[in-house]
Design a protein that fits this description.
The chain folds into 3 domains: 5-62; 80-359, Vaccinia Virus protein VP39 (Rossmann fold, 3-Layer(aba) Sandwich), CATH 3.40.50.150; 378-473, Nucleic acid-binding proteins (OB fold (Dihydrolipoamide Acetyltransferase, E2P)), CATH 2.40.50. 31% of the residues lie in helices and 22% in strands. The protein has helices spanning 5-15, 23-26, 36-50, 80-94, 101-120, 128-154, 174-182, 199-206, 249-257, 274-287, 326-333, 432-436; strands at 52-54, 60-62, 162-168, 188-194, 214-219, 234-240, 260-271, 295-298, 317-319, 351-359, 388-395, 408-412, 420-424, 442-453, 458-463, 468-473. Helix 1 crosses helix 3, helix 6 (128-154) crosses helix 8 (199-206) and helix 9 crosses helix 10. The mean pLDDT is 94.
Length: 474
């Protein structure tokens, strides 16, 4: 028996202001009085658009309107439930001793091939074996990374508790599971994944464990073929580790940005390696030029609003390493190695990632701007080599120096044409903020010496003991 959806919506809109909505009661208000189970299913399907949260007792109440508070995201491992779900899939396909014998060899060969394809910039074809290898190798770091980026929205009150999410190129669900675990239990989420490959089969299984108010839909189409406008306004648009696999990522991202709510956010995420990281930054710059209808919220702030960076753009954040999940440990331990081969080939627990957040409302995480009267513009560095200058910049790396060398930090101000690095040659209380400031922080730097590094093709900004570095915004 069908339900008169218009009558159901009208009834729910009335009752939500009166008392919790009980499907066992609502059916009495509807034409033909459909069965309560049918009414419950229909209410669940309409719940997001009606702003209704389903409680444990089955009643529906208005969803919370307060934005999400940062949950203190700092995972030290992939949660056991997610580890077990991946291991169950490996067991189903390859048997009890999936990490040994032909099954283990197949997985290791697939991981080796995927890593080689990424390094060489080749596209990866995801069949059932590749999907499981991808989940095994990438699930932990992708899971952790997305929460750290979401923190940049939540700590400013910009992550809504009721949100529609569109995850483009969702893969095997690392970012999706991270998003699910990041959000509070009372969040109301309409999650849509676009994933055309065999990754979708793994994704579907892993999403079975999500909460009842985190409702999921998988669209097994390519990003190019899918019509996002049919979903309505999107609050969070996620491109997680997929930009380098799209034929025309600028066109795809630009089209999907049109679906964002006015106060929505687009999150770009990529591994920290040179190819994928610089591709993310290239796409960011292509879809968000100066005076465009979309702004770079973070981290690569345009401190000179009339300018945009044109350097290589290799910038990434690093967070604490995760514990090795059992499926990586088993696969690695069963590998056949030559005498001088080190273990760890099939372990991937480093949390290093590149990211950007774009917004259509012009919002910037730190609304500070540089001043012609007070600050050096990095675009003009060539004319100021051997000069001492003051500048305003964004910290875009941790310490990149090799062992026993002077600490080295990538910085930018949004105008740079080539890389700029702050080199700390004399540490003091005056410049302590350089080391201690987090990734993406805005720094004021006074009395820094500009030198040209011919070996690296970059500018070194020499920070001596007398150089003053102050944290402006974190």
């Amino acid at each position: 028996m069908s339900v008169d959806r218009e009558a159901l919506r009208d009834t729910a809109k009335y009752l939500r202001h009166v008392r919790p909505i009980d499907p066992d009661e609502v059916y009495e208000y509807l034409p033909d009085q459909p069965h309560q189970a049918v009414v419950r299913t229909a209410l669940r399907e309409e719940a997001f658009d009606l702003g209704l949260f389903e409680r444990e007792d089955g009643a529906f109440v208005p969803a919370g309107e307060e934005p999400v508070d940062p949950p203190g995201w700092s995972p030290d491992r992939l949660p056991a439930a997610h580890v077990e779900a991946v291991e169950d899939l490996l067991f189903e396909r390859y048997g009890l001793d999936w990490h040994e014998g032909e099954g283990g060899d197949e997985l290791r060969e697939t991981v080796d091939r995927m890593k080689e394809d990424y390094v060489r910039g080749r596209s990866v074809e995801y069949d059932a074996d590749a999907a499981l290898a991808y989940a095994l190798y990438h699930q932990p770091d992708f899971y952790a990374a997305v929460g750290y980026v979401l923190d940049r929205l939540a700590d400013r009150g910009l992550l809504p508790r009721t949100l529609r999410v569109l995850d483009v190129g969702a893969g095997t669900g690392g970012p999706a599971l991270g998003l699910h675990d990041y959000l509070p239990d009372d969040a109301l989420v309409d999650y849509h994944a676009i994933e055309p490959s065999a990754n979708a089969d793994v994704l579907a299984t892993l999403l079975e464990g999500t909460r009842r108010n985190f409702r999921t839909t998988i669209h097994r189409e390519t990003a190019e073929a899918f019509g996002p406008e049919g979903l309505g306004e999107v609050d969070l648009l996620l491109f997680g580790n997929v930009l380098s696999e799209l034929a025309d990522p600028e066109a795809v991202v630009s089209r999907y940005l049109e679906t964002l709510a006015d106060d929505g956010a687009c999150l770009l995420l990529a591994p920290a390696d040179l190819g994928t990281s610089t591709e993310l930054r290239r796409v960011e710059r292509a879809v968000a030029p100066p005076a465009a209808g979309v702004s770079v919220y973070a981290p690569d702030l345009r401190l000179w609003p009339d300018a945009a960076p044109a350097d290589r753009g290799w910038s990434f954040e690093e967070r604490p390493e995760l514990a090795t999940p059992s499926f990586q440990r088993k696969l690695d331990a069963a590998a056949t190695r030559d005498y001088d081969d080190e273990p760890g080939t099939y372990v991937n627990t480093d949390v290093k990632f590149s990211w950007a957040i774009l917004r259509p409302d012009g919002e910037r995480r730190h609304p500070v701007v540089a001043s012609e009267e007070r600050h050096h513009r990095m675009a003009d560095s060539e004319a100021h080599v051997t000069d001492r200058v003051n500048l305003l910049c964004v910290k875009l790396s941790g310490d990149l120096s090799p062992h026993d060398a002077n600490p080295l930090f990538k910085v930018g101000d949004g105008s740079e044409r080539l890389e700029h690095y702050l080199v700390l040659t004399g540490e003091s209380s005056l410049n302590r903020d350089l080391r201690e400031a987090p990734y993406g922080a805005v720094l004021s730097v006074e009395n820094v010496l500009i030198l040209w590094n011919d070996d690296e093709g970059a500018y070194n900004l020499v920070c001596e003991a007398e150089t003053v570095v102050d944290l402006v915004a974190a």
